[in-house]
Amino acid sequence: MKRRIGLAIAATLLGTVILSGCQNTAAGTDSVNTASEAQPDVQEPVSEAESPEEQVYKVTFYDTDGTTVLSEEEVKSGDTVTEYTPEKENQIFMGWFATPTLAHEFDFAQAITQDTDVFAGFMENIEDTRTFAILGSGTSPLLAVSNWGKTINDEHYMTKVEGENTYTITVDLCEGDEFQFAIDTSWNNQRGGGYMANTDIDGTEYFAVAGGLSESSQKSNIKCVKQGNYTFTLKTYPGADVYDTKNSYYTEATKENYNSNPYDTIEWTYNGEMSAEMSDGEVAYFIKGAIVTGWEDKYDAQYGFVEKDGVHTLTIDLEEGDEFLLTSLITVDGNSNVGNEYVRYSNISDETSLSYVDGAENYNMIAKEAGTYTFNYNPATQELTVDFTE
Questions:
Q1: Partners of 220 in the beta sheet?
Q2: Least enclosed by CB within 10 Å: which of 99, 234, 285, 366?
Q3: pLDDT at residue 10 above 60?
Q4: Per-residue pLDDT reduced to its tens digit, 89-135
Q5: pLDDT score at 254
Q6: Contact 110, 80 (CB under 8 A)
Q7: Residue 282 confidence (pLDDT)
Q8: Which residues contact 209 (CB under 8 A, 6 or more apart)?
C-alpha cells in the first residue's frame, strides 16, 4: 500500500512540473495551486497481476460405472474440453455420454460453463461368429435369385474381415431393388434400413428406407434409387445385441428373429456403373386376397394379368367384402421371385373406379358388391382402373 501511495504522489508532482513549464500562468497566481486544480481525477490502471482471475471449471471423465474416475481436466469458462479415447482390456470404447445411463452423447463442441461430468461407454469385445447374407427381391442378378431370401448361394454371403466384426459385399443393383442383410432364410438377426449410416451423397439420393413387415425402421427394406455397383460394409457389436422379449411372438426358440443392436451400422460406397450388363426382367401382376386366394400367392393363369401395349388386364369374379391387392412377380433369366411392387386402393384416382371398391386402413381394396371385376393397370403411370358388372 505504501508503494502505491508513493507512486501517486510522484505522479502528482510530475504533473505539477509539466504544467508549470508548459502553461502561461497569470501574474500573481499560485502556479502550484493552478496545476492542482487543473489536474483531472484519473484512476490508476490495474496491472495484469492484480486483475480478477478467470473462472476455471473441472471436467471429470468417469468409467461406465459412473463412479470410477478415468481422468480430470480444468477448463477455462467458455472453452471446450479435449476429447480423448480411453482403453480397457477386452472392451470396445463406444463414445462419451452426457448422462450415466449413456442415453445422450456428450457434445465436445459445447462451451464449459460449470463443473461437468462425462461418462464413458464401453462394451465387451465379443467376436462375431455369424455369417450375413444379402436377401431381397429385384431385377439385379443376386436379388432375382434371392427371392426374398428363399435362396442363399455363396455369392449372397458377405465376406468377414479377419480379426474384425466387419462384413463386406460388392453387388450390382437395379433401381427398385429392395433388400436387407440377415443370417439365414428365416431373416434372423436382420439388419435393414434403420442401420444405414446415410442414404444420399451431396444431395443425391441413392437409397430409400422402404416398407417392411415390422414397424421398426431397423427392419425396413433398403430400396435402391440409383442403379449401379455398390460395396456395403456391415459393422457389428454383438456385445450390445438386445432382444424384443416383450413381443407377443417372442420365444427362446425364435429369439434371433427379435434381435437388434443400437450400435450396428451399414455403410456403403457407390462404385459407378454396374459391372455387368443386365438381362431384361419381366414383371407380371397377380391378384391376392382374403377370399379369392386365402392370402396366398397363387401364380395360376386365372389370377394373373394379361399384358397388351403396356397395360395389364384381369377379369375375375369377387365376393362382396373380399379384401385384396395386386402383387408382382419378377422373372430374370428364368428365375422368378416375388416382386416388391404392390398395387392398392391408393393407385385408383378416377371416380367411376372408386365407386366399385372401398379402401381398407392398410390401403388394400375391398369389393363393394359380388360380381365380375375388370382391372386395368398401367405400370408406367401406376394408375389402376376398375370396371364392374353384376
A1: none
A2: 99
A3: no
A4: 989 898 999 998 887 899 999 999 999 999 999 988 899 999 999 99
A5: 94
A6: yes
A7: 87
A8: 192, 193, 194, 196, 199, 217, 220, 221, 222, 223
Do 375 and 313 touch, CB atoms closer than 8 A? yes
Whole-number Å distance between alpha carbons of 295 and 311 = 25
Residue 5 has pLDDT above 80, yes or no: no
**Grid coordinates representing 387?**
370396371
**Which pLDDT does position 385 carry in this prediction?**
98
Angle at 292 between CA 290 and CA 295, to 5 degrees: 40
Q: How far apart are CA 31 and CA 17, in angstroms?
A: 10
- How buried is residue 313: exposed, middle or buried, by Cβ count under 10 Å (0-12/13-18/19+)? middle
Gap between the Cα atoms of 318 and 314, Å rounded = 12
Q: What angle do CA 360, 363, 365 make, to 5 degrees?
A: 65
Cα angle: 325, vertex 330, 331; to 5 degrees: 145
pLDDT > 70 fraction of the chain, expressed in percent and rounded: 85
Average pLDDT over residues 250-271: 95
Nearest to 144 by CA among 279, 8, 310: 279
Contact 306, 314 (CB under 8 A): yes
Per-chain mean pLDDT for the chain: 87
Could you give the CA distance from residue 196 to residue 158 in angstroms, rounded to a whole number?
Answer: 16
Distances, alpha carbon 282 to alpha carbons 47, 159, 309, 312, 315, in Å: 86, 31, 14, 12, 21
User: How far apart (Å, rounded) are the C-alpha atoms in residues 106 and 100?
Assistant: 11
